[in-house]
Amino acid sequence: GEDVEQSLFLSVREGDSSVINCTYTDSSSTYLYWYKQEPGAGLQLLTYIFSNMDMKQDQRLTVLLNKKDKHLSLRIADTQTGDSAIYFCAERFGDYKLSFGAGTTVTVRA
Amino acid sequence: AAGVIQSPRHLIKEKRETATLKCYPIPRHDTVYWYQQGPGQDPQFLISFYEKMQSDKGSIPDRFSAQQFSDYHSELNMSSLELGDSALYFCASSSRKGSGRVEQYFGPGTRLTVT
To answer: What is the pLDDT of residue B98?
Structure first.
């Protein structure tokens, strides 16, 4: 979506941490999401964060939100080959609809 | 746990034909969303329904229409198909009640190919 921006590619070594960054423009967004899409598959909801929070941790996933800079990041600890996928950040606005970024393709190398 | 079901999973149509895509939301979800994802692109919001009424509209062509039925399933009808309509069409569902109003779950998608 035009209001959400992400870097397009990330290559990471297996076992390292991955950090995927996203910027958004709508300051009225209430929730921000991370979805994972494997080749030929649907969108899997990974996690989300409420706009009045600055951090959320869920097992290997850590979401950081800098509301002042409208910057969202997803950190994946101990990245595995199964983490290779496209990761979309999305903001919720209006009547619950989502606006997605272009997606970051994460490639995990051995 | 039950997920969003979409049918068919794959559909091949010719130009100017019509297509109907079906979506069955997660049980007890009252809101359905349709998104279109072109090749190498991010999903774009098309239209949504809450309690069988259209609740929001995005970049949906006039050739497309949709509705939500009494059992909450939804259908996306596409007429006068064009080559550019070839895409992955996702349905998502959510519940606006209680703590479930945050998550929006996506189905596996219907891959439409127009030749």
So the answer is: 65
